[in-house]
Amino acid sequence: MPAPIRLRELIRTIRTARTQAEEREMIQKECAAIRSSFREEDNTYRCRNVAKLLYMHMLGYPAHFGQLECLKLIASQKFTDKRIGYLGAMLLLDERQDVHLLMTNCIKNDLNHSTQYVQGLALCTLGCMGSSEMCRDLAGEVEKLLKTSNSYLRKKAALCAVHVIRKVPELMEMFLPATKNLLNEKNHGVLHTSVVLLTEMCERSPDMLAHFRKLVPQLVRILKNLIMSGYSPEHDVSGISDPFLQVRILRLLRILGRNDDDSSEAMNDILAQVATNTETSKNVGNAILYETVLTIMDIKSESGLRVLAINILGRFLLNNDKNIRYVALTSLLKTVQTDHNAVQRHRSTIVDCLKDLDVSIKRRAMELSFALVNGNNIRGMMKELLYFLDSCEPEFKADCASGIFLAAEKYAPSKRWHIDTIMRVLTTAGSYVRDDAVPNLIQLITNSVEMHAYTVQRLYKAILGDYSQQPLVQVAAWCIGEYGDLLVSGQCEEEEPIQVTEDEVLDILESVLISNMSTSVTRGYALTAIMKLSTRFTCTVNRIKKVVSIYGSSIDVELQQRAVEYNALFKKYDHMRSALLERMPVMEKVTTNGPTEIVQTNGETEPAPLETKPPPSGPQPTSQANDLLDLLGGNDITPVIPTVPTSKPASAGGELLDLLGDINLTGAPAAAPAPASVPQISQPPFLLDGLSSQPLFNDITTGIPSITAYSKNGLKIEFTFERSNTNPSVTVITIQASNSTELDMTDFVFQAAVPKTFQLQLLSPSSSIVPAFNTGTITQVIKVLNPQKQQLRMRIKLTYNHKGSAMQDLAEELWEGGCDRWQVPPNCTWA
């Protein structure tokens, strides 16, 4: 058989290929020749063939058929064969393949070899791809080589010991005696690997950390010798002696000094020397300074030393290298909470970074700028951040606007400044603000009684001819509706009042209604504002009636419903109109952990606190009881059938919902739209509540076992049941939602529907967030009336956000066989 081509010739040939197909053809031809050679057990050229195979592997072609040949080369007595064999084993084998266990005996023999280079090959291979089984078997040999006097083997054995500890942490104590003299070694390679080994042991074991704290003076002495020593050509990098070893020692000192006063005190002086004596003109020096800063900030260092570290980061901000500036901003952001005053000294430099062309630097500078805002600098910082908001890219506007809102709410020097700032944000980036910006600003304006005339005038001028910023238009429409009389009267004292007539105000609001840029929510604000003005204005009531009546036939259902209700106010309840539309009182901002319902804010759904009321204590006539929801009949509300069935038909309904699509099933009845400022609507009491003073439901479930109705993607829904003591047709189902994943599920909504022969009421959930790791549950109550004792079918729909994605799922449950009377035979299951 002719001799195979050399590796150099193969590389030269492959590089001449003009196309991918031509290269693939060459590789396949050579692989066929190598396979033939392997089958013939050609020991002469096995090393050459494996070397070529490794080159093909590096190019991305399969080379797994050479694994056993690598083992044969490792077993060879020739050093050249062993070198290629071990290299092939590190590239082609890993611990997931059982073939690697065949190497254990060869590696053990080579670790005891008389030649240090063969021992070094075995140590490198074990440290690269040794499995936990191999590490257990060979840890004794590694520990023995760690005590040898040969520095070449000691540095390789130390790195191999690091791999052994990572794979089998319980073997850590085996290497403890060998670490005693490692730091006394003069060889920098051994010192470097020893520090890596000590760092690994300290990170993995608190006992080791306490044991090695006594080495802090020795590490300080080594570091001092490095920075004070003269020029050493074998360790010098850009004029700095062995920067790699310096960085490793600083990292180990950071671990040893964390939460320890004595160790921190021992290293304060050397950290100050490193920080002041290291050259900053080259990246090598900057790397050492950065590690020094991290160490100073992580240990219990002196206050002067921390200020020095922050000043170093401040100098980094002036560096031309973008990576160094980004690192400085990130580090300052981590330390701003603990050393706020020191970071404040570099505020102007940080603000200048907002003008950087690099988006990552710009984002870090924006986050740090918001962290620096306080009551003393609020005006200056807001001026810079508002300028940034004007000129920044769209992806920054949402976060910047949110940050300005939070800072203004916390540190506003006056209410006028607060209102002006938020209006400036809405004018500049109104389309990017959070959904709660509109109600928050409305509340702020409502509570600032002395600013009503000024605010409504500013908002009126802000939206003249420009309806592009929808949140601004919504706030303006609300304020004009509330304080339109102040606008027309010209009572503004803060600035020169403008002369506006009632017709001009209505012209603006009508323009909002017909504008193509106005959303459905904005039109609702405008129509409600026009309706409110019917009690504020005196000369344009007939015009307002005409506008409202026009929208009674709007194709927008929400707008049409509002208009119909407002028309009814004019015609049937005109005597109540002024009382219903009177000015809103001062609002109190109350946060609650109670039930929430989904309400609309600025066109998006958002959980809002739900006002709850205690159930009535006395009996109520069934004719005056609130209705139950029939979720299968759209949003219609149908009465619950009383205990004695009547012939009254249920309200318009249909067949079972088609996937519950586009129907509000949150459990609250469709409330009549009202002005944007109406208080939140509480849940209606159940029809049978209050009929008797005795408890309606058993304390424990009688005869109906709990079931798991849904379990998928970490979300689990369980149903538990209670029966009414007064009406066996009424059953209360309590759902419990739990989350076993590692992240919370937010915006959770549970919806249910039943056939129209049933009546169903879905009460508000306890929360909209399902906590991770089963640390909490969401509970929600369903009340079902089954007057005809039929088999229960229920369709459920789940929507939530998880890991940044919107999730939705449906399921249909069937309570089978004999369960129509809520009696449970042993074989009764959910389908």
Give structural notes.
The chain is an alpha+beta fold and 831 residues long. Among the domains are: 435-581, no CATH class; 707-814, Immunoglobulin-like (Sandwich). The chain is 49% helix and 10% strand. The chain contains 31 helices and 14 strands. It has a five-stranded antiparallel sheet with strand order 7-8-9-12-11, with no helix packed on it. A three-stranded antiparallel sheet has the order 10-13-14, with no helix packed on it. The chain has a two-stranded antiparallel sheet with strand order 1-2. A hairpin with a 7-residue loop joins strand 5 (628-629) and strand 6 (637-638). Helix 6 (104-111) runs parallel beside helix 8 (132-146), helix 12 packs parallel to helix 14 (261-277) and helix 30 (557-571) crosses helix 31 (574-580). The protein is extended, with a radius of gyration of 38 Å.
Distance between the termini: 71 Å
Oligomer type: single chain
Shape descriptor reads extended
The secondary-structure class comes to: alpha+beta
Report helical residue fraction.
Answer: 40-55%
Our count of helices gives 31
**Average residue pLDDT:** 80
Side by side, the strands of the main sheet go 7-8-9-12-11
| DSSP summary, beta strand count | 14
Task: Summarize the topology.
Blueprint: H1 7-15, H2 20-39, H3 46-58, H4 67-75, H5 79-92, H6 104-111, H7 116-129, H8 132-146, H9 151-167, H10 188-204, H11 206-212, H12 216-228, E1 236-237, E2 240-241, H13 243-257, H14 261-277, H15 283-298, H16 303-316, H17 322-335, H18 340-344, H19 347-352, H20 359-372, H21 378-391, H22 394-411, H23 415-429, H24 437-447, H25 452-462, H26 470-489, H27 502-514, H28 520-536, H29 541-550, H30 557-571, H31 574-580, E3 596-601, E4 604-609, E5 628-629, E6 637-638, E7 707-712, E8 715-723, E9 730-739, E10 746-753, E11 759-762, E12 778-785, E13 793-802, E14 805-814
Antiparallel strand pairs: 1-2, 3-4, 5-6, 7-8, 8-9, 9-12, 10-13, 11-12, 13-14
Helix pairs in contact: 2-3, 3-5, 4-5, 5-7, 6-7, 6-8, 7-9, 8-9, 9-10, 10-11, 10-13, 12-13, 12-14, 13-15, 14-15, 14-16, 15-16, 15-17, 16-17, 17-20, 20-22, 21-22, 21-23, 22-23, 24-26, 25-26, 26-27, 26-28, 27-28, 28-29, 28-30, 29-30, 30-31
